[in-house]
């Protein structure tokens, strides 16, 4: 494996063009520079310099090698500066979440995390819950805030609250004061997220238990886009009530009263179980304090 001193010899010969100038820069003899440069060239996958007696010109491979050396030296300098400052290195903390969390209380969660853990950089990833569950289980995420799901061995689950869903329609599609049976809703197209969405699976079980088979339209995985289709009268949708209160007040969406209530989905925090690290539980407590979802008990 090449050493930093060998790479420095190559880098300064490449930058300054001659062995003599590189030796002066590094405060070593020209013969020492020559020896280190020969060792670098012997380890390289091809020639690093063109044949030129007056000035050493880099080959294409040499230019790529020089750029990599520069990035390495920049990183080493940053680490040295960090060591001198005494500041702890920043840690990237990958958090998975669904769109419902992202559009409600996640900004407050980020503010609290920054205040409590200034050396942690929270990196959010928004996706379908089943995809994020799988990433937590294989260690690709440090933490996730998702609909309730039985975790695999080695994953901790802590509840964070419930999300109440409701059946939404365009204004005027249903009588606002009447209570409507599921059969009436099933006469309209149902706009849903993908088949892997938790709320789609839950609603599917509701239709199945009632013996109903409405036309089910895939409207994408963007909740705001689904709400737009519902508001346009394309069909009905099962949406989180908290997220669309302003649209209900403005009259662009209507909440349909039904004989069978829309589902309530429990949400929880998930994180790998590390006995020697309490961070997961501490972040879960931050999530509980930030959450605007309904608490049980």
From TrEMBL:
> What's in the keyword line of the UniProt record?
DNA-binding, Transcription, Transcription regulation
Q: Which Gene3D superfamilies match?
A: Periplasmic binding protein-like II, Winged helix-like DNA-binding domain superfamily/Winged helix DNA-binding domain
Report the SUPFAM superfamilies cross-referenced here.
Periplasmic binding protein-like II, Winged helix' DNA-binding domain
Pfam families hit by this protein:
HTH_1, LysR_substrate
Classification via PROSITE patterns: HTH_LYSR (PS50931)
- Domain named HTH lysR-type: residues: 2-59
PANTHER family named in the record: HTH-TYPE TRANSCRIPTIONAL REGULATOR, TRANSCRIPTIONAL REGULATORY PROTEIN
Q: What is this protein called?
A: HTH lysR-type domain-containing protein
């Amino acid at each position: 494996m090449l050493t930093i001193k060998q790479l420095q010899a190559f880098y300064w010969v490449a930058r300054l063009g001659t062995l003599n100038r590189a030796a002066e820069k590094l405060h070593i003899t020209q013969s020492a520079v020559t020896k280190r440069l020969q060792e670098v060239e012997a380890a390289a996958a091809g020639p690093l310099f063109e044949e030129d007696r007056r000035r050493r010109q880099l080959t294409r491979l040499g230019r790529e090698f020089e750029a990599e050396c520069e990035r390495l030296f920049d990183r080493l300098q940053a680490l040295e500066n960090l060591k001198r400052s005494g500041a702890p290195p920043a840690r990237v903390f990958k958090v998975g979440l669904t769109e419902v969390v992202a559009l409600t209380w996640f900004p407050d969660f980020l503010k609290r995390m920054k205040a409590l853990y200034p050396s942690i950089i929270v990196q959010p990833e928004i996706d379908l819950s089943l995809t994020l569950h799988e990433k937590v289980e294989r260690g690709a995420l440090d933490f996730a805030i998702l609909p309730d799901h039985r975790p695999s061995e080695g994953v901790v689950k802590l509840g964070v609250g419930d999300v109440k869903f409701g059946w939404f329609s365009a204004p005027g599609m249903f009588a606002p004061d009447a209570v409507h049976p599921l059969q009436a809703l099933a006469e309209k197209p149902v706009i849903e997220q993908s088949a892997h969405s938790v709320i789609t699976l839950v609603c599917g079980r509701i239709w199945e238990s009632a013996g109903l088979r409405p036309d089910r339209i895939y409207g994408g995985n963007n909740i705001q886009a689904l709400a737009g289709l519902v508001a346009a009268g394309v069909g009905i949708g099962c949406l989180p009530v908290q997220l669309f209160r302003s649209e209900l007040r403005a009259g662009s969406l209507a909440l349909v009263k039904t004989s069978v209530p829309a589902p309530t989905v429990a949400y929880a925090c998930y994180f790998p179980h590390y006995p020697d690290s309490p961070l997961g539980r501490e972040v879960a407590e931050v999530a509980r304090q930030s959450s605007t979802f309904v608490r049980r008990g």
